[in-house]
Amino acid sequence: MSTSDSNILVQPYLFFGGRCEEALEFYGTAIGAKIERLVRFKESPEPQGLPDCFDDKVMHASVRIGKTTFMVSDGQCEGDQNFDGFSLSITVPDIVQAENIFAALAQNGLVVTPLEKTFWAPRFGMLQDRFGVSWMVSVQHKTGM
What topology is assigned to 88-139 in CATH? Predict the structure, then answer.
């Protein structure tokens, strides 16, 4: 099998340690994330062997932002997660949209690099949202800028 196979798909899968529903609501409001599928632990056809407090927690959800789908879960409700070592990169067509998305994601989060003009993009910034997920927000570079 070749890794250049066009049927291969790599998607992020984020575990929110018991705060998945809160994260889904936040991303829906902040950046227009749409839930495509959501399964709670109590809806699983196979017993999970977890305490009853897991029943309403998110076992699995597929979420779409623009053309991208990623997956999320409450995991084992282990509390605060450590999302070190990666960032989700979101690219938008214009500065106004970048400013709106950056501001929304930064609410109760941490701005690492303010959204500013760079030599590679009309605007670029980095932040960590309230859940600890790192984001890079960019305006799509257009030829001739």
Answer: 3.30.720
Spans of all domains in the chain: 13-73, 88-139
Q: Is the pLDDT of residue 104 over 90?
A: yes
Torsion angle of alpha carbons 126, 129, 135, 141, nearest 10°?
A: -60
Residue 126 pLDDT > 60? yes
User: For the chain, what is the mean pLDDT?
Assistant: 90
Phi/psi zone of residue 75: left (φ > 0), alpha (ψ -120 to 50 degrees), beta? left
Provide CATH code, domain 13-73.
3.30.720.100
Asked if residues 139 and 91 have their Cβ atoms less than 8 Å apart, the reply is yes
What beta strand segments (E) does the chain contain? 13-15, 34-40, 58-65, 68-73, 88-92, 110-116, 124-128, 134-139
Tell me the average pLDDT across 110-138: 97
Predicted local distance difference test score (pLDDT) of residue 127: 98
Same fold: 13-73 with 88-139: yes
Residue 135's beta-bridge partner residues? 88, 127
Question: Which amino acid appears at position 139 of this protein?
Answer: V
